[in-house]
Amino acid sequence: MRGGLGEFFVRVRATGPYPLPQITTPKDKLLRRVNLILLAVACVFLVWVLTEVGWGVLWRHLCQVGWYWPLLLMPYGLVNWLEAVSWKYLIIKVPEGITLNRLFWLRLGGEALNQLTPTASLGGEPFKAARLQAGGVPWEVATASVVIHKGILVLSLALYIFLGLALAPFLFPVAGKHLGYMSLAALGLAAAGLAFVLLQRQGPCGAGVRFLTRLGCCPASLKEKEGFLNDLDTRLSGFYREHPGRALLAFTLFFLSWVLHGVEVYLMFWLMGHPIGWGLAICLDALAMLFTALGFFIPAAVGVQEGGNLLLALGFNLGLPLGAAFSILRRLREAFWLSLGLLVVGREK
Q: Tens of pLDDT along 41-99?
């Protein structure tokens, strides 16, 4: 977006206590159209792939789960709880009204907006910050917490993917060339996350405003909020300098939440009657997360996530039908928690 992340939060802040991303510039509208076009193409691809696999075959795999399907909802509940605990450590002097339970539901709502809106996984961050502010957290502190958490998310995900890459040669020795490509993608993700975290310590918002001012193209709405953006810079750089232990603990908790996704994969295949080992479950999930990360521009990474799951299922000799059934089960789990997240957003409105 024009003006970067700083203007994104400034613009959304002005929309009131319920901040949905505002598409106000031609560039924003073009980005939204591109996202929706990519989503449409991905949906067509997904339907085609599932048709090729065979709906009857998929149905038989899904029926294996039977009445045990509620078990599949539990791991992500623990994931969101761990991520809420991680978030809590990034908020200095948490008010009494901001309980862990409150953070759990706010994070669930924010992640629903991240996945379902065409905003490159940023649509829910202003929502989280605004609801924290409504609960008594200063706006600069609330905004800093979600920005820092986003950086920790990317770095911990990169570490999790590297764990999967380290396990892959032992589980599928002939995949050397493909692992090389995936390693390059993981390095790119890690470099982007590291750059994002390091940038937070360099006063990026205020520097961006000053740079645009010198060029004579700084939007008036952004210039008016220069004081707020300077305060945000201070909060960001000060956190890493004054609370490194909190940052490390938040990172560790987030990494553990990624490992819990591997538990979910293990449980899904076990319930489908095709149990796999713990190492394969973590490896499969970690590499699948890489494909999902590459599809961040498409809402819910539709098509990209499924394509990655199918390729990995073939690579690990699990078979195309089983990989497709696994993708459907994961989408059903996502649908449940995303629906709860949207209910949270509606209630907060």
A: 666 666 666 666 566 666 776 677 777 778 888 999 999 999 999 999 999 888 888 89
Nearest alpha carbon to residue 307 among 325, 327, 322: 327
Count CB atoms within 10 A of the CB of residue 204.
21
* Residue range 257-282, pLDDT digits in tens: 999 999 999 998 998 888 999 999 99
CA 284, 285, 291, 294 dihedral sign is: negative
E-strand spans in the chain?
A: none
Side-chain half-sphere of 281: how many Cα atoms within 13 Å? 18
Query: What are the domain boundaries of the chain?
Result: 4-348
